[in-house]
Amino acid sequence: MKKDINITDMAVSFVETFQYEDIPQEALETARRCIVDTVGLYIAGTSEDVVKILAREALDEGGNPEALLLMGGGRKVPGSKAARVMGTAGHAHDWDDTQVSHDPDHHYGLLTHPSVPPLTGALVAAQAEGVTSGRAIMTAFLAGFEVETKVSEWMQADHYLRGHHSSGTVGTLGACVAAAKIMGLKGDSLRHAIGMAASFAAGIRCNFGTMTKPLHVGRAAENGVTAARLAARGVTADPTALDGRWGLPTVMSGGVSADKAAAGFANPLSIVSPGVSIKPYPSGIVTHQSMDALLELVKEHDVDPAKVTSIDFFAGSNILNPIRYAVAKNHLQAKFSMAALLSMIVLYRQAGRQQFTDEVVAGDAMQDMQARVHTHLDRHIESIGFDKIRSRIELTLEDGQVLVKEADDRYRGGPAKPMSDDDLADKFRACTAGLIDPSTQAAILAQTQRIDESEDVSALLSEVMGSVSSVA
After folding, report:
1. What DSSP designation does 206 have?
2. Of 294, 306, 393, 394, which is closest to residue 349 (Cα–Cα)?
3. Cα–Cα distance for residue pair 269/132, rounded to 1 Å
4. CA distances (Å), origin 41, targets 34, 79, 120, 129, 466
5. How far apart are CA 419 and CA 426, in angstroms?
């Protein structure tokens, strides 16, 4: 790293001076979309057992009533516990947005899920501090988003390849910065908060396909909030924890790109360029182009699942390594199984909350179809690089016909092929269907779409947190 580049200094300076008035309109528009997406996923996450367990644990532990507990029936718990539940819920379906990079050394989609940690940190800290302004929450959210994504982008790609889960590691920084911004931390207090967050950062990829994977993000939110609050009380940490031999980037990835870091924060904001991808399916992002390709093939030829003899999937190691379950036995494994995901598309022509259940995945139809799916490492695709997601599908029917489709490497939901506002609203409704009534659904969506225009977001938070069934 160049000696004149100090990432911690740069981060502190950015957070201290960043104001709502500094935010470009394009960033505000994209941020509102990310917040709509994330709020829908908080609600969607309440259908998952891990979120129910964590909510019950928070109620059983008790403590100072600072922030509303998701699934808590209107009750409040300590802020760190509220953040743990919200953060886990937001990532529980693996349906939350994904950071984009133009660096060919970064595997597409394998950076951080940027929105859940900072939004959770901002919302929880705002309740604990009595901050109700939508503008304050938007500013804190974007500050956390920016620090999280820039550090993620600047770190070597080896961070993810070593087995770290970026959303659990750099996500902790995002939640910390957002909470610290709400709390008004500056100077040494802000440095100490970032230093603690760097030490708290954790998450390893062996837990993909288990309840612990979304808990990585829950802990990132919890630890980020905790770091900011402890710093406010006077707990100290290394004031340069994003730099040096023992700083987070060096320890976890072998360092950062000095050329990238030289551009600094907000030049431009990452949410503007290179942007963010909003996920169309609740599974690993590297699977979506292939699922879309198969869906087009199935619809175009009106494929009868009973007449499918085999599905051959050709891709590079950037897909085949993280999507690691040859045959999924439950809905968590299915998020990381090409056999399960492609089987869903053939059998149901969709892959949403209704398909990602243990009953569906373990059922005879899915198990039988998964046995017909075969994955192959394609040397040509492997040689092109991992900056985009590339794959090919060959579907063989019982009459011997072979249907072939290459995936569109423009990601549906990404900057090159974005979801429309109507598409995003449809996703919000799909996330929350059956969990809240349609009138509440419409009210939350409308308020969230203009959250930064509100002088008091308390009613919105109460509606979001109290609209779902209580665990008690």
Report:
1. G
2. 294
3. 25
4. 11, 20, 12, 24, 15
5. 10
**206, amino acid identity:** C
Closest CA to 206 of 292, 324, 79: 324
Tokens of 22: 């500094």
Q: Is the pTM value of this prediction over 0.90? A: yes
Using one digit for the tens of pLDDT, what is the confidence trace for 113-168? 999 999 999 999 999 999 999 999 999 999 999 999 999 999 998 898 899 999 99
Contacts 24+ apart (CB under 8 A), 452-455: 452/20, 452/28, 452/31, 452/32, 452/134, 452/135, 452/137, 452/138, 453/134, 454/133, 454/134, 455/132, 455/133, 455/134
- SS3 of residue 421 by DSSP: helix
Cα distance between residue 277 and residue 98, in whole Å: 5
User: In a 3-state reduction of DSSP, which class is residue 159?
Assistant: helix
Mean pLDDT of the chain: 96
Which is nearest to 34 in space by CA: 138, 121, 127, 122? 138
Q: Which amino acid is at 91?
A: H
How many whole angstroms separate alpha carbon 134 and alpha carbon 282?
Answer: 28
Helix (H, G, I), strand (E, B) or coil at 114: coil
CA atoms of 69 and 85, how far apart (whole Å): 7
b vs e for 307-337, b when ≥16 Cβ sit within 10 Å of the residue's Cβ?
A: ebeebbbbbbebbbebbebebbbbbbbbbbb
Do residues 190 and 180 make contact, with C-beta atoms less than 8 angstroms apart? yes
101-104-105 Cα angle (round to 5): 95
* Rounded Cα gap, residues 20 and 451, in angstroms: 13
**209 and 163 in contact (C-beta within 8 Å)?**
no
Contact predicate 304/271, CB 8 Å: no
- Measured distance CA(31)–CA(142) in Å, rounded: 7
For strands 76-77 and 98-99, give the pairing. unpaired
Q: Are strands 308-315 and 373-377 parallel, antiparallel or unpaired?
A: parallel
Q: What are the tens digits of pLDDT across the range 76-109?
A: 999 999 999 999 999 999 999 999 998 888 876 6
Where helices occur in 92-133 by DSSP H, the ranges are 116-129
Q: In this structure, how many other beta carbons lie within 10 angstroms of the beta carbon of residue 372?
A: 18
* Phi/psi at 464 (5° precision): -65, -50
